[in-house]
C-alpha cells in the first residue's frame, strides 16, 4: 500500500483528497499536515468523515514524512517550498497541485526533481490535461489572423489570478504560435488601451460564488471564432488526478512530470 501524506487537510482540496484516500484500498493515510495555528491540529484526520484513523493532524513536517512514500500538496506557495525542502531531505516523492508560484519557486521545484520524483501540475483533471493539448494544436493551426484570449472563473475564495490553469493554457497557446508566454501575455486592460496587438495572448479573470473552475480559450478570427471550454463541477476530479499522480510516482525515484506523463497523453 502506498503511504500518502496530505498537506492542507483543512482546505477544500484537502477534504477532497482525504475522501479519495479513504475510498481507495491501494492508499494508506500516513500523515495529515496543516498550517501552524490551524484549529484542526491534534484532531483525527477522519473526523469530518465520521472515521477514526488514528492519524492526528499536525504541523510538524519532518516526523510526518518519516516512512512515507509520497506527499500530496494543495496549499500555498510558501508552504509548498517548505514541503519541497523537507521531502528532499526525507527522500519522499511529491505531488504539487498548489498554484501561484513565482519563477524562482518554479526553478526550485525543477532543481528538487533531480533528487526526488515530482508531479507538478496546476490542474490535475483529465479534461484539462486534454484541453492543454487541444489548445496548443488549435493555436498552431490558427496561427495567422486569429486572436487568442484565455477567460477563467473561480469561486470567491481563490487568492491568485489568473489561475494556474489559465496560465498553463496560455503557455500551451504561446507554444502553438512559437512564442514564450512572457513575451506576449496581456494580463490587464483598462482605459484607452489602443487596438489589440496581433500575436498577443490576453487574459480575463472572473471571481464569484462557488465556481470550482471554468476555463475557455477563444481563438477569434474575422468571420468566425473557436472556443475551447472546460468546466469542473467537483473537486473530486482534481483529487482523483492527484492520487493517480501519487501512484504514478511509485517507481520514479527522480524527475519532473506533469499530468500528461501521468495519463500517458502524447506531448505535442
Ligand atoms: P484552501 O484555502 O481551501 O486550503 C488551503 C490549505 O492550505 C488549508 O488547509 C490551509 O490551512 C493550508 N495552508 C495555507 N497556508 C499554509 C502554510 N503556510 N503552511 C501550511 N499549510 C498552509 O485552498 P484550496 O481551494 O484547497 O486550494 C489549495 C491550492 O490548490 C491553491 O493553490 C489552488 O489554486 C490549488 N488547486 C489546484 C488544483 C489542481 O488541480 N492542481 C485544483 C484545485 C486547487
From TrEMBL:
It is found in: Cytoplasm. Keywords: Amino-acid biosynthesis, Cytoplasm, Diaminopimelate biosynthesis, Lysine biosynthesis, NAD, NADP, Oxidoreductase. The active site is at 154 (proton donor/acceptor), 158 (proton donor). NADP(+) binds at residue 35. NAD(+) binds at residues 8-13, 34, 97-99, 121-124. GO terms for molecular function: 4-hydroxy-tetrahydrodipicolinate reductase; NAD binding; NADP binding; oxidoreductase activity, acting on CH or CH2 groups, NAD or NADP as acceptor. (S)-2,3,4,5-tetrahydrodipicolinate binds at residues 155, 164-165. Residues 3-124 form the Dihydrodipicolinate reductase N-terminal domain. Residues 127-263 form the Dihydrodipicolinate reductase C-terminal domain. Pathway: Amino-acid biosynthesis; L-lysine biosynthesis via DAP pathway; (S)-tetrahydrodipicolinate from L-aspartate: step 4/4. Its EC number is 1.17.1.8. Gene3D superfamilies: Dihydrodipicolinate Reductase, domain 2, NAD(P)-binding Rossmann-like Domain. GO terms for biological process: diaminopimelate biosynthetic process; lysine biosynthetic process via diaminopimelate. It is an enzyme of class 1 (oxidoreductase). GO terms for cellular component: cytosol. It catalyses: (S)-2,3,4,5-tetrahydrodipicolinate + NAD(+) + H2O = (2S,4S)-4-hydroxy-2,3,4,5-tetrahydrodipicolinate + NADH + H(+); (S)-2,3,4,5-tetrahydrodipicolinate + NADP(+) + H2O = (2S,4S)-4-hydroxy-2,3,4,5-tetrahydrodipicolinate + NADPH + H(+). Belongs to the DapB family. HAMAP family: DapB. Catalyzes the conversion of 4-hydroxy-tetrahydrodipicolinate (HTPA) to tetrahydrodipicolinate. Homotetramer. NCBIfam families: dapB. This is 4-hydroxy-tetrahydrodipicolinate reductase.
